[in-house]
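Reading is simple: the token line describes the chain's fold. The lines below illustrate.

. . .
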Amino acid sequence: MGQLLAGPFVGSRLADFGAEVIKVEQIGAGDPMREWGHHRHKGRPLWWPILARNKKSVTANLKESAGQDLIRRLVVKADVLVENFKPGTLEKWGLGPEELHKINPGLVICRVSGFGQTGPYASRPGFASVGEAMGGIRYINGFPDQPPPRSGISLGDSLTGMFAVQGVLMALYWRDGAGGGKGQVVDASITESCFAMLESSLPEYDFLDVVRKPSGTGLPNVAPSNIYPTKDEKWMVIAANLDRMFRRLAAAMGQPELAEDPRYDTHKSRGENADELDALIADWTKTKTIEELAAALEQHGVVYGPIYSIADIAKDPQFLDRDMILRIPDDHFGEIAVPGIVPKLSETASGVGWLGPPEPGQHNRDVYVGLLGMSDDEFSSLQDEGII
């Protein structure tokens, strides 16, 4: 239950690995994600088929008691409920955890929100942009003395979705494998999920009063680990900050003496002289095309990688070999390329059975009649009353 990105992203990850995921949408337009995305093909946006793949769609008017009762009946059959409404919404509908656990004591309830279910900000609505800002990610992104930019994706939503999936799986394991025997609430906050990614920023501030700043294309005091220009005006990431890796890079550059230079011979000294070292490396990389540079780095075992666009990814042999570019047949699109499944499990099956259902409530009969055992008369009555 929920819409847009963070909550549905949880269901997407579980659906990829065979969970039966039933998405409850509002009557009419359904999830706004059906219309989101900048570009369209054959009149339809291209984000929804990815986000809602492998999911069944039902509709329910949750403002009416009959619609709320449908959720109670679904909860009886469910292992997990995922929702990303504003905190307090489920309770307003009489569907809070206390009530649902009376119906199904084993239910895991995953609640995704901007700030969490408690605290002074709990009642605020929250999106990824705000979570990234207040969670600290935005502050350290970008370049010094410039406005802090955001990533070109909804990073906070996706991070929260992954933390929420971890919480769901841990709760299921605790219930079924570790002897807990009952369900619980997983409370995933967008802001806290972003905050959790800040590495050592907190103890650095707590002990040393150091506030980590944006550092552009590299990391402070870590060198060489940056992007470097090539002769054909592309960019290569080179990460050679380990001592032995830097020795390999120096050899690749034809300047093995750099690894013995006291300015660059240790991790600490390279960090202190990062700007000077980066300039030396850039002078070398600019003499080679991206292919020539890759060959030299590969020969010497240096960690490297070109900056890829989606066009580069779509034809890269590594992505293709790992089935990360899946082409799925579809009645409307004909065939659509979608991202493959992450991670790869050696035993558990995964796959894309179908793309996001084109119409809200497409699986109403399958779920309400087939799963819940609802009679045809009741099903028709709910349709006539505007409940489904």
Summary: The chain has two domains: 6-197+322-384, 225-313. Residues 6-197+322-384 form a domain with the Rossmann fold fold (CATH 3.40.50.10540). Residues 155-176 form the longest helix (22 residues). The CA atoms of residues 190 and 199 lie 17 Å apart.
